[in-house]
Prior knowledge:
The chain is α+β, with helices and mostly antiparallel strands. Helix content is 53%, strand content 19%. The chain crosses the membrane at residues 12-30, 333-350, 357-377, 383-407, 428-449, 461-486, 522-541, 838-856, 868-887, 893-912, 951-973, 979-1005.
Amino acid sequence: MVRFLLARPIAVFMTFMALIVFSIIALRLLPISLLPPIDVPQIVVKVNYPNASPEAIEQNVLRPIREGMVTLNGLEDMDSKAGSEVGTIRLTFDYSTRMELAYIDVNEKIDRLTNSFPQDLGRPEVIRINTSDIPVARVQVIPKEGIDEVEVSLLSENVLKKRIEQLPGVSLVDINGKKERIITVSPNADVLNSLGLTQENLTQAISSGNSDLSGISVKDGQFRYYLRLATRVNSPSDIEQLPVRAPSGAIIPLGKLAEVKYETKEMLGYHLYGEQEGLVITVHKQASAKMNELMPELKAALELFGTDYPQVNFELTQDQSNLLNAAISNLETSLLFGGIFAFAVLFLFMKDYRLPLIIGVSLPSSLVISFLVFYFFDLSINIISLSGLALGIGMLIDNAIIVLDNITRKRDAGLSIFEACVEGVNEVMGALISSVMTTLAVFVPLVFLSGISGALFFDQAVAVTAILSVSLAVAFILLPMLYLLLFGRSKKAMDKEEGPFFRGVLKVYESGYRRITKNRKLAFLFFAILIPLGLGISQMLETEGLPEIEKLDATLEVDWNEPISAIENRDRVLTMVKQLNGKYEQVESDIGVRQFLLFDGENSIQQAFLYFLFPDQESKSNQMESLRTFLKENYPVATFTLGDAPNAFDQLFNSSLPYYEVRWKDLASKKPVEEKQMDPWLSQFPTENWERGPGLQKESSVVFTLRADKLAIYQIPVSSVQDQISKLFGSYTITDIKRFGEITPIKLKEPNARFEDLLRTTRISASDSASYTLGEFIEYEYEDHYKYVTADKGGIYQSVYLNGANPERLQSSIFQWGVEKNLSIEMAGQYFKDRENLIQLISILMISVLLLYFILAAQFESFIQPLIVVFTLPLGIGGAFFVLWVFGGSLNVMSAIGLVVMLGIMVNDAILKIDTINRLRANYHADDSLTEEESLEKALHEAGQIRLKPIMMTSITTILALIPIVFSSGLGADLQRPLVFAVIGGLTIGTITALYFVPLAYWFFVPKKKKTVNA
């Protein structure tokens, strides 16, 4: 095959040129994203039920929804949480579930349940979670001093949002901090009482004045006209002109009885940028869009906004494209330094500029052609796929060096250039194919990990498979063809004498090899001891998802745990921000209820989320400590979380599950256990290292009790009292003004007095026209009650979170505690998910090693020789662990990728070394002048000399290409540094392993062949 293709160099060259052209076209069409467009198998149902208690939301809304969702296909888990005025249900599905169909099913079930919900409840929101839902940037919209904030909200909703949505690549624009205009009616109680009028007279007059006739038409001959009433109101002045009839018969304009004016609707949440109120617009990209094209378009749009709307300031914050730019920069750095160092190392070892030139052509060619595979597999260019390409570049250089070295060696042996190219490729073809297959055998099975990890590994696995497969085609076809073209017309033969640098390396190798062959047992014992020592270092390393990145931004999540208003929440946040005295570059706050459509978290007036960006690490540490002290001293009941700001990776991998949760249900009552009973039970809980789960958290409230006896005596309907309470303390909407899609509510303004005073001064009329104070029919008391009602598939539960190591040791005593209280106990949490993932990972890695063994057994036609390759792996892993430990690294996603890179190169070297030993041994076996031991000794020694150059070149090239990252700074370098440490440590030990351990293990484990004696 190689001979056939090399005989037609022009055809092969043009084919590769065509592939490169098509690959460049495909590259321009590939979407560029931060993360792969993964469907997270979760759907969140959000319920907003104003003035409803947690118990009412659970009983009337969440329970029917849970019962209706149980039959959903692929549903794995379901949790609900009911709080004051809000409720959420989180549905978790199996990863094989088609989420677009699940989303439709959930909406259909919600529609069927709508008729059973309370009449004043709006339709629950259904939110589908996707990686593309993570915003790529946030646009701050800050009104200048004296500008109407409601007008800015209308500008953002009706103009800015639509203009940003029109940008190519934008899928959704979400807004928080909008303010709405309403018309308030403030009755004058004294005037109303003097005229014998009530609030009911005012509300009826306004409702009548804003009535409409729907669907009514009149006939005029052969024409028919739709009929509308001309009494509709459009402004406060219209409302003030409405007539109100007094009991005396007098007609009084409503403006004489109440104050009517425009006001801003009471906010349940605010957005602050610095110390100024404003809005924030989050921008979400389409899955097929290119982020590197979207962000410049967005920045250009903001410049236009600044010119078109000078009354508003615009700022771009939390730009997530920085992470992607860092990954692309790292790939470019790897290519640049890889090329430079490959050239330098090849020149040192081979002394011919044309060989590095061939590497310089083959490396970018392989990379570009790999993007054609991306196009056919519908992959995007993202951080995951780019890391897969970076992972394959090391192997790519390795294959190129091996093929070039072997061709050069064949030519030095006296073969013609054409035959040297053919024989040089054919000799290593089987070994290189096996080495690539073993690398894929280690890596590709990780695709079958469950959860997001497996979905992410798919992109990486395809990227690795693409670049390794292309690198083989380039190494077997393009490299020998380029060699043939560059050296074919050269009249001067290559210098057979090795350069001084390699002669020095060979001298050091020979010295070490002689010492090991003299003390084989001692040397083998040394390597055997290194394996458990190296692997044991892993126990000293910390484990984390992503490496610790030096971030200059931080977040603060705080729950005040007090029944405060949104205004008080805002004032507290402003006080906190002022404590920093401007020692920050940016700060933005989402306070109270967030208006984002895609927000799937908990919405509470008592909570606030702050984002800080600091100029340097020292300033960040000092200010965070200052905030922590301030909160503990001034708000001791508040709970808060202070930490680094999450990037897109963190948001994707962060779990909402607690680490270890103990849940219990009262199966008899199917209700939460009452506080007076629960608190003594908790004092008997088997451990003190626990904290209350949501179902046990408490908040203060006021409970109104209607005095039914007095209501019956004075013949006052209960509905009248309830209606009066809703007008006093609720947000009572009289009617709406609707025009051109804009809705302006007309609301009865609630008094700002204390509720006790309102109960004493507000009067209610009986059937005999006598009036009484409202407080005579209502009793009230303050009480603590459960803040949330939590439930799962099995019903309502309460829980505690356990802290500390190995919580499973408490299981038996916890179950005993539950039995004594007649409670059903179950355990849940991230602890069990992590354990399940670990077991699955170990199983998959064992399968990978087994596949690796099968491939090598087929390659070597031996059951023992593959074990030599397998035993080299723990030595390399131990070396990687040692360097990570020395430099303070951890076991994380990036260091794991580094291990795979290193193992791929190590396996490659070991396979080629054994393959060379087998071929030389077969040649010497035919020599009758040598004994079997002598022929084996000679094969081991000569194979070491032959493979020394490519092994050293590969290792040195890879290590030198990665060293600049160690001394770099910034987000990209912090992310890649654990990968670099793992590769450098593994290859340093791996090089020694390939040079000395492989021949040593071959000597001990491979059986000696008996020579046949010719008769």
